[in-house]
Amino acid sequence: MLQLNSLHHIAIICSDYGKSKHFYTAILGLEVIREVYRQDRQSYKLDLALNGRYIVELFSFPNPPHRPSHPEARGLRHLAFAVADIAASVDELKRQGVEPEPVRVDEHTGKRFTFFADPDGLPLEIYEA
């Protein structure tokens, strides 16, 4: 069996780099580690951290193809972030102009959670931990 230590990062390709950079940094609060423009690929690569830990690579490419991203489509279903207070997190998302779904309760754990979308419609979740 492969011995995995932890999740290293998630890579996201966006359609509007400026809008997505703002969303992931100013709204979600991820910290910029480094930003590189790769001239040969006409692409930005933005490395982001959560609480000082590298977690997301945000890429821009010219004309990236669309990918189905509905919750039940094959492939990555969503990216979830743990929060201490779901109500405060929902209020902050709304204050920033992001409209989350109604808060639900996980029937197996009793924890509260909700979904919302990034600028490209990627489903994101906040889960009260």
TrEMBL record:
SUPFAM superfamilies recorded:
Glyoxalase/Bleomycin resistance protein/Dihydroxybiphenyl dioxygenase
Q: Which UniProt keywords apply?
A: Metal-binding
**Record PROSITE patterns:** VOC
Q: Where is the VOC domain?
A: 6-129
Report whether Metal-binding shows up as a keyword of the record.
yes
Q: Which residues form the signal peptide?
A: none
CDD domains, per this entry?
A: VOC_Bs_YwkD_like
Q: Which Gene3D superfamilies match?
A: 2,3-Dihydroxybiphenyl 1,2-Dioxygenase, domain 1
* Keyword check for Phosphoprotein: no
InterPro entries per UniProt: Fosfomycin_Res_Enzymes (IPR051332), Glyas_Bleomycin-R_OHBP_Dase (IPR029068), Glyas_Fos-R_dOase_dom (IPR004360), VOC_core (IPR037523), YwkD-like_dom (IPR037478)
By its UniProt entry, which PANTHER family does this protein fall under?
FOSFOMYCIN RESISTANCE PROTEIN FOSX (PTHR36113:SF6), LYASE, PUTATIVE-RELATED-RELATED (PTHR36113)
Name assigned to this protein: VOC family protein
Q: Which organism is it from?
A: Pontibacter saemangeumensis
